[in-house]
Amino acid sequence: MPRVQPPDKPEDLNGQNKGEYYFSDDPSSQSRPITVRLSLPDFTIDLQADSGIFSSDRIDPGTKLLLMEVKELPSGAILDLGCGYGPIAATMAKRFPKQQVWAIDVNSRARSVCRQNLQTHAAADSEFHVISPDQIPAELQIAAIVSNPPIRIGKPALHALLRFWLQRLQQPDGVAWLVVHKHLGADSLSRWLETEGYESTKVRSRQGYRILKVTKADSQGSLQGSTT
């Protein structure tokens, strides 16, 4: 099966060692497994987490705010971009059990823990895939992106990564739900998305986090999915 390689390499962060960051391919920190509780209005689950993964000691507040908003999605595959240990992927698998969930991360430890969480919490007949960027099927099209994107890889790399995936949204009803903190460039990202031909709507703002709903500017598609 043909594969594609998205542009996902981070910039040098002020000369610091990128191996110390959660988007490292193979974290050098010692594994320290921990259990993190995700409490949402429709369910509460315990997720496994580990050191060297984004927000491994608690559910990131931006991620939780995002999950509070995503209640309907168009029918089709759902992508968790930069899945970490999988709070978004696990939520999507529970809310939309009849839709494929694709969880993607460069971090091998994150993928391993995410896969474990999906095996625990997804329905027995749910279809999910936890993969690295170099395992992406070339023909993969997605209905929705739900992501707390890896902002710290740097603006050029982030823009290239989002451009790569937004082009794979099915039309006319494909949608991306993103959470970004205002201090990490949420407003500038929204403006950039508009220059790329997308409509970026700020759905909610709380504690500095912006929830952005992104659609193709000329898209008139309607949502077909529903929560369970």
Reading the helices and strands in chain order gives EEEHEHEHEEEHEHEE
- Ends: how far apart? 33 Å
Label the CATH architecture of the domain at 60-216. Answer: 3-Layer(aba) Sandwich
User: What is the CATH topology classification name of the domain at 60-216?
Assistant: Rossmann fold
Q: What would CATH call the homologous superfamily of the domain at 60-216?
A: Vaccinia Virus protein VP39
Judged by helices, strands and strand pairing, the structural class is alpha/beta
Which descriptors would you attach to this protein?
228 residues; alpha/beta; Rossmann fold; seven-stranded mixed beta sheet; two-stranded antiparallel sheet; 5 helices; 11 strands; globular; disordered C terminus
Structural write-up:
This protein is of the alpha/beta class and 228 residues long. It has a domain at 60-216: Rossmann fold (3-Layer(aba) Sandwich), CATH 3.40.50. It has helices spanning 61-69, 87-95, 108-121, 155-166, 186-195; strands at 3-4, 34-40, 43-49, 78-81, 101-104, 128-131, 136-137, 144-147, 175-181, 198-206, 209-216. The longest helix has 14 residues, at 108-121. It is globular and about 45 Å long. Mean pLDDT is 88; it is low at 8-22 and 220-228.
